[in-house]
Amino acid sequence: MRTKPGAPPQARPPISILKPLCGDEPGLLANLESLCHQDYPGLQLICGVADPEDPAGAVVRALQSRWPQADITLVIDPRRHGCNLKVGNLLNMIEQVKHPVVAIADSDVFAYPGYLDDLAAGLADPQTGLVTSLYIGRPQRGLWSRLGALAINHGFLPSALVARALGRRDGCFGATMALRHDVLTRIGGLSPLANVLADDWALGAAVRRAGLAIAVAARPVDLSVEEADLSSLLAHEIRWGRTIAAVDRPAYMASVITQPVALSGLALLLGGLTYIWLPLLAVAVRLAVVRAEERVLRLEKCPFWLLLLREVLNFFVFVAACGGRSVWWRGNRFRVRRDGTLEVLEGKSA
After folding, report:
1. Cα 227 from chain centroid?
2. 100 CB contacts (<8 Å, ≥6 apart)?
3. So where are the chain's domains?
4. Which of 13, 130, 218, 224 could form a disulfide with 108 if both were Cys (CB 3.0 to 4.6 A apart)?
5. CB 89 within 8 Å of CB 47
6. Which CATH homologous superfamily contains domain 15-229?
7. Over the chain, what is the mean pLDDT?
8. Could you write out the DSSP letters of every residue in 80-142?
9. In Å, how far from its chain's centre is CA 290?
């Protein structure tokens, strides 16, 4: 993983970027505009909303006014194609694609200079079917957003890097996924994902079944993290956990070994002061690792008390994710079936 830009790739094919939107999230205009600042030949930005009254539509129109020379399309289409509303939005947008490379990027992604070149470089190898990006959480405001960013930066990111270093090549992350249009057609398009919770993983799995590899872009993107309160933070993270568990429940449950602070605390409770050294050692090692990551990634230094609170929440989220199959997503409650597909429990039906 690089932190500095490399040389532009020799091949720079035109790219169509799909941005599924829902609501005027904090930083949305800046995130979208970061794509307009890309020094890349041939960029089409397609933004989609389901509701004509969605305030995200007004943000896109403002972007179009500020960048009249840019190729920016706003798709407003209420058609539903399944339980996964994000995929349904993408299916409504895909008809507007006109370039040979298709990228899907979440609304909270801020594109660094050279972002598109990194995607193009990853697709230069004909054996690579999809390029995905790791991400760094950047809190917008407040305690809960800071805690959400900590989970990404000191939980997800190192775990993904270690898995890659150990030889796993199945990681596919929804922050950014780019593939050639002919590959997308070859794997059946996006329609098979319409009722799948882990749509990013399923897209990567389809690419791998086609005999192609998944590459990771050279640099991570920034992800805007906005959590209004503890309830929204937990709902978001439990959904993430149950999404991962839906893909590979045994592996997710085995990931309890990545909870050394909580496990050592439980050992202390069960075994008494004889084991007091365990949590002290676990906290010291965890703190050293976090400080090293902060230096490498140039992150703001996390207060010690906040890190301890994050460790407690990590274990709570892990237990909650292992203990159920329902998730809240955009005001709807779903049940995750054993095959990873969604069933509506509360809210709008598909």
Report:
1. 15
2. 13, 14, 180, 181, 182
3. 15-229, 234-346
4. 224
5. no
6. Spore Coat Polysaccharide Biosynthesis Protein SpsA; Chain A (3.90.550.10)
7. 90
8. --SS-HHHHHHHHHGGG--SSEEEEE-TTEEPPTTHHHHHHHHT-STTEEEEE--EEEEE-SH
9. 21
- R_g (Cα) of the chain, nearest Å: 20
Tokens of 116: 């598109």
Which residue's structure tokens are 């959480």?
Answer: 137
Closest CA to 202 of 109, 135, 125, 104: 104
Q: CB of 42 within 8 A of CB of 116?
A: no
Both structure tokens of 48? 């989609």
Q: What angle do CA 54, 48, 325 make, to 5 degrees?
A: 85
Which of 127, 108, 102 is CA-nearest to residue 45? Answer: 102
The SS3 of residue 50 is coil
Q: What is the value of pTM for the model shown?
A: 0.88
